[in-house]
Amino acid sequence: MKQKAPFIDSLLGFTAVVGLVALYAPLIAVVVLSFFQITRLRGVIGFAPFSLEPYAALVANHEILSALATSLTVATIASLASLVLALMFAFYFVTARRGFGLLMQVMVFLPFLLPPIITGLALLIAFREIDFSRGLATVIIGHVVFIVPVVYRTVLVRLQLLGRSLTEASLDLGASQTQTLVHVILPQMRPALISGLLLAFAISFDETLITLFVAGSETTLPIRLWAMMRVGFVPEINALATLILLFTAAITVAIGLMQRSQGERAS
Amino acid sequence: MSAAPTRSDTSSCRRARALVALRHALNLGLPILFVLIPILSFVLVSFWTLQDGQIVRTFTLANYRSFFTEGSYLPVYLSTVWLSLQVTFVNVTLATAIALFIFRRTPRVRFFILMSFMLPLFMSYIIKVYAIRTILGQRGLLNEGLMALGLIDQPIEVLLFSRTAIFVALAVIYLPYAILPIYLALDRIPANYLAASADLGASALQGLRHIVLPLGRPGIAAGAVFTFILTFGDFVTPQMVGGTQGFTFGRIVFSQFGLALNWPLGSALAVILLATTLLAVALAGLTLRREHVR
Amino acid sequence: MAATNGPPPFQSMCETTRVQPLLHLENISKRYGSVRVLDGIDIAVADNEFLTILGPSGSGKTTILRIIGGFESIDGGRLMFDGRDLAAVPINRRPFNTVFQDYALFHHMSVAENIGYGLKVRGRPKAEIATRVADVLETVGLGAFGARYPAQLSGGQRQRVALARAIICEPRMILLDEPLSALDVDLRAQMQRFLKSLQRRLGIAFVFITHDQEEAIALSDRIVVVNHGRIEQEGAPEQLYRRPRTPFIAAFLGENNLLSGVLAAVDGQLGQVDTAAGRLVATADGPLPALGQAVQVAVRPEHITLSPASAATRDALTAEVADIRFLGANILIELTHPALPDTVLKVRRLADGSAADFRTGQKLNLSWAVHDAALLVPGG
Amino acid sequence: MAATNGPPPFQSMCETTRVQPLLHLENISKRYGSVRVLDGIDIAVADNEFLTILGPSGSGKTTILRIIGGFESIDGGRLMFDGRDLAAVPINRRPFNTVFQDYALFHHMSVAENIGYGLKVRGRPKAEIATRVADVLETVGLGAFGARYPAQLSGGQRQRVALARAIICEPRMILLDEPLSALDVDLRAQMQRFLKSLQRRLGIAFVFITHDQEEAIALSDRIVVVNHGRIEQEGAPEQLYRRPRTPFIAAFLGENNLLSGVLAAVDGQLGQVDTAAGRLVATADGPLPALGQAVQVAVRPEHITLSPASAATRDALTAEVADIRFLGANILIELTHPALPDTVLKVRRLADGSAADFRTGQKLNLSWAVHDAALLVPGG
Amino acid sequence: GPKGEVRLLAYEGYADPAWTEEFEKETGITVKVTYVGGVDEQIAKMKASNGKDYDVVTVDTASLKAFADQKLIAPIDKQKLTSAKNLLPAFRSMDNATFDGATYGVPWAWGSLGLVYDKKTFPTPPDSWEVLWDPAYKGKVISLDDANNDINFGAIVLGIKDPFNLTDQQMAEVKAKLIALKKNLLTYFAGFDEGTTIWSENNVVLMFSMGELAAINLQKKGFDVGYVIPKEGAVGWLDNLTVSAGTSNTDAAYAWMNFALQKKIGADMAKKYGYGATTDAPQGMDYADRLIWAQNPENYTRRQAVWNEVKASE
Ligand SMILES: Nc1ncnc2c1ncn2[C@@H]1O[C@H](COP(=O)(O)OP(=O)(O)OP(=O)(O)O)[C@@H](O)[C@H]1O
Ligand SMILES: Nc1ncnc2c1ncn2[C@@H]1O[C@H](COP(=O)(O)OP(=O)(O)OP(=O)(O)O)[C@@H](O)[C@H]1O
Ligand SMILES: NCCCCNCCCN
Ligand SMILES: [Mg+2]
Ligand SMILES: [Mg+2]
């Protein structure tokens, strides 16, 4: 049922189109520029003919590729670790005494309620005070601290929605706590786990402001991009950004289709 | 309740107790170690001072005093708060309209529309800011395009390096963060509510006002908080597109940790930043107080 | 009461209401994709009438109600209210209200705000809303609950709020979609009584949906039985119960003993049916089928008389008591007949001590009045 | 059947089962915070018994079941199974299984996987699981449904899966928490029959929870009625129905006419009660209260005989027919008595044509056998 | 040779992939580069671990003392610096990098913060920085954003003799001058690329630049621009290779420095990035004598505060 409201709908539609145009303009610019580089002959704007040069250059640019590799490593480890921690915290919240649970929750949420600069600085100062040298580990810790709240939230909502009854049914049928976790709870939470993981990965992959503080000699992709502002953005950046965008779009569509078919089966 | 415990009972009892202790240690210990202590340690630093380039570890409120009395801190702080509030207001309004737009589509296409609004999050933030600048410049793609089309004959100059530009850039970058929570809140509205509202004589607009928006309020509040926090803390975007207007509070905080090496003052300013965002969270929480959950 | 004051059996109420129906669904059909869910539905609702649409799950009841309410479009037919075509009337302008199955109470509004919503969106002044809400709250027996929120009410109380919300704008008709199915047994009985008395007090039409035949019988002036998107039969409760026209109706409304056989001879409205247990006489309600056709004889458990097996009477079956089930106010005697291996014959008695003599294993004669045996045509 | 083969009325089944109960709840009590929700609950369940715990909403039924299942701790008392204290036995080691009210089917597993789960976690080989699942699917009549997912089943089918899952490990007892309350009327009747026959076939004990007294009566060997966390009365269904000890039981199981009065005279188990409508004689089941005390007389609607008002008999009331309600198999005649303004007297008759003579407005004499009038002490 | 890893904290252009690959092949030492955008960031990174994260750090002469005072870098062991012989005579003394008898840095690359101008607007190169303040060019001027160098710049424009040790009075004058400039600016920029990108996408005609590279890049893009050191002079900067106080592989650090100080590397850097090399006479950079070589300023903290006030001013 949808109540007809042509005026409201056209207003909302207009806003949505404006929103989409605004959101996609930078993306489209990047994609287009990855194929047609801008030229400015004596200040006059123009476009070079279609070329895949930036893509070829990207394949040869070991610096960027190694930064990309670091970013992928960090994002993979950080998102998996965040998932495990978020699960642990969520179980704690639903089972431990309320006071303890709330205390944990406030602390876990804090970094997400703070501008990243604060989290970055806090970790920077703390690592320095305990003389913990910075490296991949500190970057991952920084990311995990920032990501866990997001994943925790997703996982907790799902866990609370699950209620006790499936767990109790499993125990009642003779399963141990571990069997219950593996066979019942985790599978039931799969959509939440997947979306939590993706979100975590995406945030970590693009995290700049915390990483800036906690990265030692490690260079993630955003940090590399940040440094490039000093001397020059090479065209292969546009190529890389385009590839990442295509990749994430494909994953999104795949997940959408997967969840839809699951939803049809499960609801 | 049962008879005297046997030996195996006590040892398994001990193991169970150890497990419980471990659980508390992990669940409370990790956040304390990696969140609480870092934040507290920099709150602590904010009460120290810098003298002759060296940190003096005695308690003082001097840094906080500086914030209120010295030079530019307070005005910049206030103008940054104001800027963030403006972006928050505009973005939440836009995001609410967009979330409503998605909400009024048929269920099977909603996910994809929502995702198309989320996809821009996956492109690097720095690349996006760069691209925005390429578009908005005096000889940027937008001006050149409009001139090529003959729509204007002079480039529009305020597009970039102005408060307007900061506004537009922050709005574009953070819009998805507001859309998501608002849409998720709308998505939880039972389908029947709108049918009931219409049945009782309400127009679509009245249904929107009395049912959809009130029930979307938690999402709207969450979207507002996210937007405020992210824009308030962002010190890169304003600098890159704001021209001489792009000096924000985050930038001041950041500058204390560079050559100025004034960590204590930087920490104090950061604590003020922190307090502001916590205040925003608390205010949002307060507006939800009256919420009646089902 | 319908049972005593209603129109005489054998005459369809449709005749009466067609004169000036309040609401008239004319030959409505509806498809979802390629599936036809409603097919030629024709229902007339009279002013003040308590009309029930009864049918099994998936038969299309909710779809009918949603079409009336305007929540669903139609693919054929017409919808008239008070002589006016409703096609162009949007939901919020239709002059009747709905009580939803899950109540659809607005959880962010208090009870009073929920009830006053219809007036508020019509722009009535606050003072008027307050008085009328207070009135309606009294009507549904929730005087003191205005300030509460739906989450703070029990199921039955929520039900009343939904009702109050639907009647406050004084519609000439309200639509109710299985409003009682979420309530537990005791509450349901209580709310049934309340609904019925409310309808009488308000003097407006109720279009009520249920799949519970007991509920339908207890409440309705008239019942329309829907099956597979078509109207199977309609009439006063007693008429449907006593004079089912199809085996479906016979089995769906109350319990029945259905015996299959072949029509062997005809005498006026009476038919002689050869069943595995012998020849039975049954009364047809309408034209009789051809001789030799497969038919069924339906006899209600409460219409069967039991007597010691020695007595030999016409139309009597001899069967053995298999089980005696105590149901509280009634006792159900289940009997088996050697020639009917798949059938349990059921006989109902009041648990007033009169059935105390029966014992399992006992052989008894079953008999009934000829007019209590209905001759039905399967699939007819 | 309980009604015919069960122990004679007036003798508690407890005597029988206390010899060797399968499950014994001894003096269980339970608090939530400062609220005491169970108080001295003592229930013995015999092998093979169909025991129902019946009570109104909030009376503590689920809490009892959850305590047996191990999902809830107790604050006092003991829980014995087969002579063994269950205190130290964790949920997954308890030798019985539960059918949850909302089924709690794992929706990410197929029907077969759901049913086989108990065997899988016990590490049984795949082949064995497959055969046993197939067997149990046959038992519950879902042979062809193994590969489906719960979402693709109807309510009744889900119910069967939950049952199958609970019985596959061959427990000596299963616990069922209102398993039928989510089903619609027809399905419920069908599943009641199925449950009862299943219990007989398996020969295991069923502890069944419901708030539906009709269901309890139809299914149980024995009913324990719980109210406000205490046991109000227990016994075979017919015994409880016929011999309620308190007004609560009298009103909760089936319909009753309750007339208040004062005990005026006593003669053996018979008491003479002065009510607003005159002096009535009733039979007490247990010690009689003191003279002059407030008591109630309970008479079942089906135990009342109606006769033309001219005949004057002992214990007869004269009342006027207010309404005749057709209920399908039964007819309910509602009468009013000038001295009992707040009471509607109900009389139940089989709808077999014998009540066809009654008319609203008619004056009738009500009479009943003395042993059908129960003398009850309010709050007793 | 020494094996392991050398970690560089460097500006863009100081660790070209061609060099690092050659170095890795030659020595077997892996190179790991962390790029920074400015001194602020650099000192923040060093300070956070007292240098433990890096082995070789490029520090400009003006900041060397701050690094040394904070004990973030270690004195150079000249014995190990076998390539020092490649340095031009002017740089060989390393006096600028020497405090209390210890030398902390080896000169490696130099440049100036000159004026970039649009040749169409200015057929003859502007001869004074004052052109930036000319209201005729309001909104067409951009300036580097760097607390220390902006103040140096302001002092130079005002003709202050010692731009690195300003009195309060002088500081106030500089601040006022910079605030006045701000009113004429389109924007500040933070790096080479930012400067040239902003130039190419907007109608800019004058830039207080980050160096020669700005002009070179613009010319490459087809802009007709010139680079000039106006009559007041300009800040000259000199970046030094230094050894981190926290290094865990001193040998690798020296191996990199010796490798980097080869003439062919310097030439390659000059060609690719337009920096002046310290191992070869720079072509076209004939104004070294007019540069005012940056020195350690009187008080960084104060300069940062002043600069913040400039940027915060209305
Ligand atoms: N949106 C839909 N799309 C496709 N089929 C539908 C849709 N809604 C209902 N149906 C189908 O139409 C038929 C009638 O549905 P309807 O809800 O009217 O039944 P009902 O009689 O109200 O059943 P119940 O007693 O279970 O509520 C069903 O077979 C149902 O599956
Ligand atoms: N976790 C709890 N905390 C506090 N009170 C509780 C809790 N669980 C149950 N109660 C209370 O205990 C009492 C008994 O609850 P229980 O669920 O056993 O009732 P029930 O007889 O099963 O009712 P129903 O028929 O409604 O299911 C109720 O008053 C309930 O409010
Ligand atoms: N792709 C994940 C979103 C990254 C968000 N970056 C936010 C920067 C905050 N200032
Ligand atoms: Mg329906
Ligand atoms: Mg319960």
Count helical runs of chain A: 12
**Low-pLDDT runs of chain A:** none
**What structural category do the secondary elements of chain C indicate?**
alpha+beta
Assign the CATH architecture of the largest domain in chain C: 3-Layer(aba) Sandwich
Give the arrangement of secondary structure elements:
The complex is a heteropentamer, with 1 copy of chain A (267 residues), 1 copy of chain B (294 residues), 2 copies of chain C (380 residues) and 1 copy of chain E (314 residues).
Chain B: H1 7-45, E1 49-51, E2 54-56, H2 62-69, H3 73-103, H4 107-118, H5 125-136, H6 141-148, H7 163-187, H8 191-199, H9 204-233, H10 237-241, H11 249-255, H12 263-287
Antiparallel strand pairs in B: 1-2
Chain C: H1 2-5, H2 13-17, E1 23-32, E2 35-45, E3 50-54, H3 61-69, E4 76-81, E5 84-85, E6 97-99, H4 111-120, H5 126-139, H6 155-167, E7 173-177, H7 185-202, E8 205-210, H8 213-219, E9 222-227, E10 230-235, H9 237-242, H10 247-252, E11 257-267, E12 270-275, E13 278-284, E14 294-299, E15 305-308, E16 317-326, E17 330-337, E18 340-350, E19 363-367, E20 373-376
Helix pairs in contact in C: 4-5, 4-6, 5-6
Chain E: E1 4-10, H1 17-27, E2 29-35, H2 39-49, E3 56-60, H3 61-69, E4 73-74, H4 89-92, E5 98-99, E6 102-103, E7 106-112, E8 115-118, E9 141-144, H5 147-157, H6 168-184, E10 185-189, H7 192-201, E11 206-208, H8 212-220, E12 225-228, E13 234-244, H9 250-260, H10 263-273, E14 276-277, E15 291-293, H11 300-312
Parallel strand pairs in E: 1-2, 1-3, 9-10, 9-11, 13-15
Antiparallel strand pairs in E: 3-13, 4-13, 5-6, 7-13, 7-14, 8-11, 8-12
The complex binds adenosine-5'-triphosphate (2 copies), spermidine and magnesium ion (MG) (2 copies).
Protein name (chains C, D): Spermidine/putrescine transport system ATP-binding protein
GO molecular function (chains C, D): ATP binding
InterPro entries (chains C, D): AAA+_ATPase (IPR003593), ABC_SmlMolc_Importer (IPR050093), ABC_transporter-like_ATP-bd (IPR003439), ABC_transporter-like_CS (IPR017871), Mo/tungstate-bd_C_term_dom (IPR008995), P-loop_NTPase (IPR027417), Transp-assoc_OB_typ2 (IPR013611)
List keywords for this structure.
heteropentamer; B: 294 residues; mainly alpha; MetI-like fold; two-stranded antiparallel ribbon; 12 helices; 2 strands; 2% strand; disordered N terminus; C: 380 residues; alpha+beta; Rossmann fold; OB fold (Dihydrolipoamide Acetyltransferase, E2P); five-stranded mixed barrel; globular; binds adenosine-5'-triphosphate; binds spermidine; binds magnesium ion
